[in-house]
Amino acid sequence: MTTAIETRGLTKQLGDVLAVDDLDLSISSGTVYGFVGPNGAGKTTTIRMLVGLLSPDAGTALVDGTAASNRKELTDTVGYLPAEAPLYDELTGREQLQYAAQFRRLDDGDRVEHALERYDLVDAADRRVSGYSTGMRRKLGLAQATLHDPPILILDEPLNGLDPGATRTVRELVNEVSDDGTTVMISSHDLATVESICDQVGIVSDGRLVADASPESLSASVAEDADLEAAVIELTDQ
Ligand SMILES: Nc1ncnc2c1ncn2[C@@H]1O[C@H](COP(=O)(O)OP(=O)(O)OP(=O)(O)O)[C@@H](O)[C@H]1O
């Protein structure tokens, strides 16, 4: 099995904080990987290094075998959704996706219409993004991040602030793209959802990886009837 994402000794200091501390990650292709841990554990900082938005102080990050700093080469390979979706408020939802399609030189107009349907945004497609709710913005952000069908999808807190319906949409998307062989890395505090969709979960605390295994093994490692939430609390000393 090939490795989609690999870090060795990844380290980043931000101000006085050692945000990521000698982190070794290995995510096999096709895995749905949950990246969890307390507030301030270093998840976003790690992800920003994986998508080439931050340079590590030490260590290496490879995405699809290419240095993560090489953003240009990874444009077609990676779909990335940050916690705040990068959207233009003055555009309509449809225009936003058309803009993203042009940026990526995707000439297929059907792709945009298909994405609007897939994310249940057809009725809102001609409204300006400035009037979208949190869930609608997230869905549009996801539509944008997946427009080019990237083989690797990195989602930073995609479930934050979503109602159950929108959470289900994200869950279904992850299951769907995973069935097609896409590798998905997803950081989240919604541990029940992570438990239900992820094959493997990495737990970070104070910038370090404290555990990395299937949700079932992590739960079983703390108690017979434990769930992932109990495991995360136990393993991160919360
Ligand atoms: N620009 C910055 N300057 C100084 N410290 C920072 C900066 N950005 C993040 N940090 C610190 O780095 C650490 C890791 O932050 P990071 O955002 O990666 O954590 P996280 O696991 O994503 O947290 P959360 O779950 O709350 O989003 C935290 O202690 C945070 O306060």
Automatic annotation (TrEMBL):
InterPro entries: AAA+_ATPase, ABC_transporter-like_ATP-bd, P-loop_NTPase. It comes from the Archaea. This is ABC transporter ATP-binding protein. The keyword Glycosyltransferase does not apply. One of its GO terms (molecular function) is ATP binding. Keywords: ATP-binding, Nucleotide-binding, Transport. Gene3D superfamilies: P-loop containing nucleotide triphosphate hydrolases. PANTHER family: ABC TRANSPORTER, ATP-BINDING PROTEIN. Pfam families: ABC_tran (PF00005). Residues 5-231 form the ABC transporter domain.
